[in-house]
Structures are given as C-alpha cells and as structure tokens.
Design brief:
Blueprint: H1 3-9, E1 20-26, H2 30-41, E2 47-50, H3 74-94, E3 100-101, E4 105-109, H4 112-126, E5 133-135, H5 137-143, E6 154-158, E7 163-164, H6 166-179, E8 183-185, E9 192-196, E10 199-204, E11 207-216, H7 222-226, E12 236-245, H8 249-252, E13 260-263, E14 268-273, E15 276-281, E16 288-289, H9 314-323, E17 332-342, E18 349-352, E19 359-363, H10 368-385
Parallel strand pairs: 1-2, 1-11, 2-8, 4-13, 11-19
Antiparallel strand pairs: 3-7, 4-6, 5-6, 9-10, 10-11, 12-15, 12-16, 12-17, 13-14, 14-15, 18-19
C-alpha cells in the first residue's frame, strides 16, 4: 500500500510533519518516549517522535508493568535501578498522575544453589545502592501471610520492586518531552528511508522529514523498520500470557497490598492486582509468531492480542495455587496473551545500528517497562556525549555482528 492510500484509509496524523529535525525517533512505546524525553533533557529539543498508531501501541499497552531491580548483569541492573528511581519521582517532575505501586518483592529459593545466586546479586546491588535482603521462610510468611513456605530454602527481599501502569508511564514521559520542546506525531508511520548526503530522509503518508540522526524504537516491528536501513535486526516475537482473577475478599479486607512474588525455579510472578491476583508464567517452549509465510505479521496489530491459550499454563497455575492457595479460590476474569520481542540472548539492543551511519537502535526489549527509563538515558548519553557512563557492551547491537 502506498503512502497516499495509507493517508486516505487510516486516522489522520495528529500534527503537521516538520520538514526536518535533528533526531527522529520511530516508535511511541515506553522506550521510544523515554529516548525522546532523555534527549530533550540533555538539550536536544529539535527531536520528533513518529508513531504508527497511538502511543503505547504494540507491546507497551498490554504489559504487566512489573519493575524489579534484581538482575545478574551489571549493565542491566544499573539500567533498571535508574528506571525505578526515575519512576518514583516522574509524576511530580512532569506534573502527570501515575499509578506506581512500590510493594516490594519476595524472590523464592527452592535450593541452596538458588540462594547462592541471590547472594551474588545482593553483593552486586550494594555497589549500585540497591539493597537486597536475605529472608528466612518464616520472615517471608510474615509479610505474605498467604504464602506456603514449608518446602522453601529461603528467599530474598527487594524493597523497591513493584508495578507501574505502562500507559501512564509512557504518557508521563511523552508529556515531559513535549514540555521541553520535543514533538510527537501519532498516526504517522514511517514507510521508507534513504540517505541523502549527510542526512536521513524518512518517508511517511504525511510527506518526508529530513534528520541528522534516526532511532529505531519500534518494538516487535524492529525488523520491519531495520530493513529500511539494510539491517536485519535479531528479533523474534514470542507470546507471553498472564491472567487476572476476580476480586478476593481476603485481599479486599487488607489495608496494604501484598508484595510481589517471584519464583525463578517454577518460572512465574504473582502479584496483587486491585483486589485480585495476577499470575504471569514464563513458559518453556513458548510459542513464536510471525516467523514464516503461513503466519505473517498483520499490517496493524497495534492493540490486538493473540487468542487465549490457558492449556499451556496449566502446570504453572497448579504450581502457583499450591504456593499461594488463595489463588485457587478465585475465578479468572481476564487473560492477556500478547507479543513480546526477544533477542537471541534475551537482552535489548541499545546503541549504534551496526554499519549504518547516524542510526541507532533502542528495541527488542523483553522487559521494556522496567528498562525503558534507563535505556532512554543510556542511548541519550551515547548520542549526545559520544559514550555512556558505564560499559554498555551487554546491550550494544554490534554484539551480534561478525
């Protein structure tokens, strides 16, 4: 479909497309909005974000929104701890209301080996100002009275874990960027790119825009945008499901929200969602989509989901019900089954697009909500200052090149 047909058929763009900008960010999820915000914060205010649909479309809108600090990588821990610190004050900084529940989280250890891993990450955290605390089974039950602990070796407490509303986060970052002079145009998909001397010329249904730098922040459509620059982005979309229960009287009667539970051995998270519970398993052999001609990526999957596939979750549901029997007393009201992008090593791509001048990537985020804030800062540092504050090779797109 050509640009004229797209312009006639789809919703109208929400603003006039400038003829030029210093930077164009492609993609209006949490990560793209964060890149825009941090570029503007560093003084690059001649920046434009182009979004194919509405802000948050893609993977952001349906994300569970969990925000852990725990991770076994120095680079990722710094990114995530920056994010959680930013999110706690972002609403006040940009004058935008946000639902960010800092409930803390208990991470469960079924064995001594798992506990040793927790202790290793705890030592890492001390160097970054992130305080993790070892817990005994009885201590875990004291703060989560519905938790069965008889067969657990121990656990770890992250006081700053919690969950945030992904849409509110994205809109807050967008508002902050706009207030600093950045421009956001929704319903304005990028349909092509070409190099003209020292500039990029991006085609859209609203015309062309020239820019010095371009950022691919297009989520699970990273490969679609990457091909416009001759780039094959290492990205695949996998289905991730979570379920939400009806209200539970025992939770309605509580004054405080339960802490989030994370079970790395059984591979799921469980948290309170309003007066119910939200269970999100990370499945083994999870289903990939849009990898062959028989399952093509739709032209528009902005606010769509895959069909529910609860049979795949049966083992995880049973395991979680044994761990927190309260879960088994409630009916399921909603199942969310949506695409999440994955790179081969599970880490995002943040930095220079390999072999392409003045083009950058901030895409393929499997844990995009908690990493969005830190990713935006990291890429802004690289683009504006020429380097990041700390080593960023773990997320550098060039790690997959020959």
């Amino acid at each position: 479909m050509d640009d004229a047909a797209i312009r006639e058929q789809g919703p109208k763009a929400t603003g006039k497309l400038p003829s030029s900008a210093r930077v164009v960010v492609i993609g209006g999820g949490a990560v793209g909005a964060s890149v825009l915000y941090h570029l503007a914060e560093k003084g690059w205010t001649d920046v434009v974000l182009l979004e194919k649909n509405e802000l948050t479309s893609g993977s952001t809108w349906h994300a569970a929104g969990n925000c852990p600090n725990y991770v076994g990588s120095w680079t990722i821990m710094k990114m995530q701890s920056y994010s959680t610190s930013l999110y706690r004050k972002l609403g006040d900084l940009v004058d935008y209301p946000m639902n960010y529940h800092v409930t803390g989280a208990i991470r469960l250890a079924h064995s001594r080996q798992r506990m040793e891993e927790f202790r290793h990450v705890e030592r890492m955290g001390r160097h970054m100002g992130v305080e993790f605390t070892e817990m005994s089974p009885s201590e875990m039950q004291n703060i989560h009275p519905f938790l069965e602990v008889h067969d657990l070796y121990g656990g770890q407490w992250d006081p700053l874990d919690g969950d945030i509303d992904p849409a509110q986060l994205t809109q807050a970052l967008a508002k902050g960027a706009r207030d600093m002079g950045a421009t956001i145009i929704r319903f304005c998909p990028v349909t092509g790119a070409r190099r003209d001397k020292d500039e990029w010329v991006l085609s859209t249904p609203e015309g062309e825009i020239r820019c010095e730098y371009v950022v691919n922040a297009s989520g699970y459509r990273a490969n679609e945008i990457g091909r416009m620059f001759g780039r094959d982005v290492p990205c695949i979309s996998l289905a991730h499901q979570y379920l939400v229960t009806e209200s539970i009287p025992e939770l309605s009667a509580r004054d405080e929200k339960l802490p989030l539970l994370r079970d790395p051995d059984s591979s799921y998270y469980l948290r309170q969602e309003k007066d119910g519970l939200l269970l999100g398993p990370y499945e083994k052999n999870c289903k990939a989509h849009w990898v062959d001609p028989s399952d093509p990526m739709p032209e528009d999957f902005s606010f769509q989901l895959y069909a529910d596939d609860l049979e795949r979750l049966e083992w995880y549901i049973e395991d979680a019900c044994a761990r927190v029997p309260l879960l088994g007393t409630a009916g399921i009201t909603r199942v969310v089954n949506g695409p999440i992008p994955y790179a081969p090593d599970g880490l995002p791509l943040i930095g220079q697009m390999p072999g392409v001048p003045n083009a950058f990537e901030a895409c393929v985020f499997t844990f995009g909500i908690v990493q969005a804030g830190g990713a935006g800062k990291l890429l802004a540092d690289i683009m504006v200052d020429g380097e990041s504050e700390t080593d960023s090779w773990a997320v550098d797109p060039r790690r997959f090149t020959d």
